[in-house]
Amino acid sequence: MARRRARELAFRTLFQAERGADDLLAVWSGVRADLAEEPEDAGDDPYGDPLDRTAIALADSLLKAYAEDGERVDAVLEENITGWSFGQMSQTDLNVLRVAVTELLHLETPAPVVLEMAVRVAKRYGGDDSGRFVNGVLAKVVRSLRSAGRVPGAARDASNDGEADPEGGETGVFGAAGTEGRE
Fold first, then answer.
1. Is residue 179 part of a domain?
2. Which of 171, 33, 182 is closest to 122 using CA atoms?
3. Is the residue at 7 inside a domain?
């Protein structure tokens, strides 16, 4: 659960920086300062339950990697999204995708885990079709990275080639659902 919350925190920080046209690492520094303060009541914590150091370190790794390699992450996404420009996409979906592709490229997380967690975040924060859209785009990204030999470590070696089903199961096929126009 802490890793899921860390991904959500990274997503929310990236979203906040994008919406405010602020420097990502400056926004992250502010978020970390907020997290360091002891809330009087955990229910008032804007980031939910307190995160442990491991979860904060994961969010930190994701955000710093995106800050350093955002152009590459965006290029990978542009190569794999059909029929949509970044300006046309939901900013929620785009930032969920950015965090997930950053994790695929920079961490040793198995691809099926990255897909499942991204779908969950998209369903929680996005629109009705966000989970399917994010799933389809990431499935296509993983296929293209694997075929190019560009997915490091565990993500490349993951034995599950099925995409995450936004309803909770496995489809068993790396379909490209959601990479073309959505209703």
1. no
2. 182
3. yes
DSSP track, 92-105:
HHHHHHHHHHHHHH
- SS3 at position 170: strand
Q: CB within 8 A of 125, min separation 6: which ones? A: 8, 11, 92, 96
User: What pLDDT digit, counting tens, does each position of 82-92 carry?
Assistant: 888 898 899 99
Entry pTM: 0.78
**What is the C-alpha to C-alpha distance for residues 142 and 139, in angstroms, rounded to an integer?**
5
Q: Count up the domains in the chain and report the number.
A: 1
Residue 110 is assigned to a structural domain of this protein = yes
Q: Identify the domain containing residue 137 by its residue range.
A: 2-157
Do 138 and 115 form a contact (C-beta atoms < 8 A)? yes
DSSP bridge partners of 164: 170
Considering the domain boundaries, does residue 133 fall inside one? yes
Phi-psi region of 153 (alpha: psi -120 to 50; beta: other; left: phi over 0): left
Do residues 24 and 66 touch, judged by C-beta distance below 8 A?
yes
